[in-house]
Amino acid sequence: xxxxxxxxxxxxxxxxxxxxxxxIAENLGIYGxxxxxEDGRVEIVAESEEKNLKEFLDxxxxxxxxxxxxxxxxxxxxxxxxxxxxxxxx
Length: 90
What we know:
The chain has two helices and five strands, in the order E-H-E-E-H-E-E.
């Protein structure tokens, strides 16, 4: 298990980004959360097998939301195993 910690910037708020990410994550068996940040970015913490995480990030970066993403800052970490679902955090 691995953890991806991602910050997306661009016009990523107010377009359904969080709920689209949640839907993709749930379909791939990924756990964690997604939330809007006050500075206009979206933050994601996601845990799963590395291949699932790569597919998740690929679907976000190449899907219908891709035109709104200016940059993605991704860091890979060791999974903490602290999640049992994927949630939209507030």
